[in-house]
């Protein structure tokens, strides 16, 4: 069935919010459908995550025609007390380094 994520059990290191934010950081005009496919989430889940991120000031968007252009607030600090002082930009930098490393692997 198209649009349904693969089943997953157990825990993961990154939250779905972090995954969605990383995809948007890579492509500020990504469509919800594409974000969902990349993150293996439903489109509805991605819409909810984007709404959460916007509500708390981590993300905003503007309409350009039928598309959304997202803007990440890189200076916003992460929410969990254990990451006190760590910014969104720092997190995205770490994720981008990992992605670049994966792209170079055979």
UniProtKB/TrEMBL annotation:
Q: Which domain of life is it from?
A: Bacteria
Key words, A-Z = DNA-binding
Can the keyword DNA-binding be found in this entry's annotation? yes
Query: Which residue ranges does the record assign to the HTH marR-type domain?
Result: 16-63
Species annotation? Streptomyces achromogenes
The question of whether Iron is a record keyword is answered with no
Check the record and name the InterPro entries matching this protein: HTH_MarR-typ, WH-like_DNA-bd_sf, WH_DNA-bd_sf
What GO MF terms are annotated?
DNA binding
Q: What is this protein called?
A: DNA-binding IclR family transcriptional regulator
